[in-house]
Design goal:
Elements lengths: L1 E4 L6 E4 L7 E3 L2 H7 L4 E7 L3 E5 L4 E7 L2 E6 L5 E6 L2 E8 L3 E3 L7 E3 L13
Parallel strand pairs: 3-11
Antiparallel strand pairs: 1-2, 1-10, 2-5, 3-4, 4-9, 6-7, 7-8, 8-9
This protein binds zinc ion (2 copies).
One zinc ion (ZN) binds next to loops.
């Protein structure tokens, strides 16, 4: 089981499964949305994902029309995203995980935007 929360702690979630695959994405959208050098995400089954508190604080932002970016309105932490055309999958923002195993990234995307100082073992 995976447990996590936003920075202020008002939004909490559980994932009734394990994280099998994680992805680093250096695209500019991820950098801006996370305020960081990359996004660190995992595709998960929506049916096993449960918001255990603070669901009313979640807000969806559509930067592109088919992709919702879901974040805590109180503290701004990005929690997950999903695509309208893939309703069974969410992409969890792994910096919010507080309990459970997160495997090392098996995929990196948009390497042209990766900062030179960052070195990741493949
Ligand atoms: Zn929060
Ligand atoms: Zn990206």
């Amino acid at each position: 089981m995976i447990v996590g929360q936003c920075l202020c702690g008002m939004v909490k979630y559980r994932y009734h499964g394990e994280i099998e695959k994680t992805i680093l994405c250096y695209c500019k959208d991820c950098q801006m949305a996370q305020g960081a050098l990359c996004g660190w995400n995992s595709p998960l089954e929506k049916s096993k994902f449960e918001i255990s508190s603070g669901i009313k604080l979640l807000k969806e932002y559509f930067h592109s029309p088919n992709k919702a970016r879901v974040f805590c309105q109180e503290c701004g932490s990005p929690i997950y995203s999903y695509r309208i055309d893939l309703p069974d999958v969410i992409r969890l923002r792994l910096g919010t995980v507080t309990q459970g195993h997160i495997p090392a990234p098996s995929e990196q995307a948009y390497l042209q935007y990766k900062p030179d100082f960052l070195h990741i073992d493949e």
